[in-house]
Amino acid sequence: MKKLIVAALMMGAAISAGAQSGTNSPYSQYGLGVLADQASGFNRGMNGVGIGFHEHNQVNYLNPASYSSIDSLSFIFDMGATGQITNFTEGGVRKNAHNADLEYVVAGFRAAKNLGISFGILPFSTIGYNYTTSSTVFKGDDMNEPVSSVITHSGSGGLHQIYLGAGWSPIKGLSVGANLSYFWGTYERSTSVSFTETYAKTTSRVYSTNVHNYKLDLGVQYTLKALDKDWVTLGATFSPGHNLKADADLAQYSVNSSTNVTDTATSSIANAHKLPDMFGVGAMWNHNNQLKVGFDWTLQKWGSIGYPSFANEDNLKGSLIDGIYKDRKKYNLGIDFVPDERKRSYFKRVHYRMGFSYASPYLSVNGNDGPSEYSLTAGFGFPITNSYNNRSQLNISGQWVRTSAPGLIKENTFRINIGFTFNENWFAKWKVQ
Known about the structure:
The protein is 5% helix and 61% strand. The protein is mainly β. The chain is elongated.
């Protein structure tokens, strides 16, 4: 029990850092931001595949039914960080940006026969951008006096979840599970318009939301033997959508440069944000615990949710409008190969992984489909060995992500994912002879 308390304290110390996941993408100014992968180190090497996977030495929170497979003698503590550099291209102009974050912290252990428990902190979405645009407007009776305007866009924040989950196997081959999460986060987006004209009015708009609610994830897996050394696992997940009871708030500030007087106006849309119904199905083929191939398909029903929007600066009335959010579909294919985990040779116990994914846009931008996403990954799972432990693992993967939409910014991101899986033999009962 003392060791579990220590692990919980370690988790609590990491929460503040884990909640700082970020992005540099201008696309994060829309919706709830850029949706996170929500995959741990070993999943990320396969580009997020995991609905059909159940590992005895890894925490696979993509499907809580998998917790029932956690080894009975182990306590697993897994934490991961990401570093990335992104190239933005628009109209022949290229710019680079980079950031690094602690992404997730999770743990898992076997609580009873066929019953596994997991808890941790995960990102759901991230918001982070800062850029300016400029234009020239004309004034005067004959509209021939040019005035330059500069529009500054910035935003920060994101949504996160702290979960507690359980996976249980009532009969051989069948597992069911659930994660219950405290779902929280804030974001703040601002748009400021200023002019070179001394007496022009400067207007700033600040959009904000504060979320405190819950999220529920359900999962099931069934494993059957196909051949003498081959098994197939089918998995499914479901997360019911619901109202987050979070308002969308707007504060508008107008400054008259000649009088230095600031006018402030506010508006709000009650219950502006919802989580959609989310579905996932997956399959994993396992050959002799050496080669595993998985495929996942997920659907998020964003299209049925209204998008909070406010009117112009003269009338701040807000409302939920349809046709902005879109149903998001994602396809993942991944492979994990290890020559033989039971051999003493180090390199025969190394995992070799790769994966591919495609995700359709979950919103529209200026009346057109927003950015879709293509991604490729390759990675390794290196055993960490010492005098008392040969079960821990270092998961490293490289990931290339292309995010683009016709006529909009193209993003090419190269990401390094690093995950440490500490697998300690906490629950063994030592015998003295």
